[in-house]
Amino acid sequence: MNIAFYLLSALAVTGALLAIRLRNLVHATLCLMFFFISLAGMYVLLMAEFIAAVQILVYVGAVGILILFAIMLTHHITGATRERISSRGWLWGLGAALAVLFTVLLPVLLLSVLPAAPATPDFSPSVRNIGLSLMDPYTITLQVMGLLLTAALIGAVAVASTSVRPQDKPRT
Amino acid sequence: MVTLQQYLILSAVLFSIGLLGALTRRHAIIVLVSIEIMLNAANLNFIAFWRFAPHPENLHGVLFTLFSIAVAAAEAAVGLALVIAVYRFNKSPDLEKMNSLHE
Question: Could you report the per-residue pLDDT of A49-95, keeping only the tens digit for each?
Fold first, then answer.
């Protein structure tokens, strides 16, 4: 279990680092997919198999493909250019990220009350239980999620398909 | 046995990597990718805390992660649509050149 954890975390950290540092955007997206897959493996280690399946379906299947489509719709950015990829104040960004890292890590490293092992060793939630709790205490949340996803998809299509500017229209 | 601390450290490192990408890259799509990395780090935190909680049979952590994934998918769809729409005007995905909201 330890070996699997270290392997998956090394894969996740490498994938995330490559995803934000690679010059070629398609390669960066593929590294991002590796990151998503290793996080799904982490969920399996944490006994959340349904979340692992959802992670593969939604992130690798939908979000990754969406990002690839966006890259291919906005052309000449496949990384052949030699220009700078970092923004102007990147040193400040690095400092801010390191500061946040240490601020987040301090309580984790200082607190000794964190449990070392799960309270219930052999527990695995069935999909039936997840579905039942979606129906009983989380009904409103489920409805709101459906509304949000519908609105987001309609909004995305509306935003992305305003193709012709008024002055570009052919005169009749 | 993997402890909760290790999961939290991994999640903090992944979150900082995502923050680093969002703060330092110029390409709009890569910034969205970094935001996805940060959201995934937060999801890992949720699942780890749920697993090590006294009563994991309550399933609150799993359901919260499920909703978080749904929100992240909606965010990715709208964000990429906005990137494509802005790209049509600016002819460049560079965030440092996107300094105007109208034509």
Answer: 899 999 999 999 999 999 998 888 876 555 555 566 677 778 888 89
Residue with tokens 């897959």: A37
Contacts of B75 in chain A (CB under 8 A): 152
Is B67 in the A-facing interface, judged by CB distances under 8 Å? yes
Pairwise CB contact (< 8 Å): B81 & A157: yes
3-class SS of residue A161: coil
Could you tell me which CATH class the domain A1-79 is placed in?
A: mainly alpha
Other C-beta atoms within 10 Å of A117: how many?
11
What residues does each domain of chain A span?
1-79, 125-156
The predicted model scores a pTM of: 0.88
Look at B80 and A67 and tell me if their CB atoms are within 8 Å.
yes
CATH topology of domain B4-92: Helix Hairpins (1.10.287)
Q: Which residues of B touch A29 (CB under 8 A)?
A: 33
CA separation for the pair A11, A5 (Å, rounded): 10
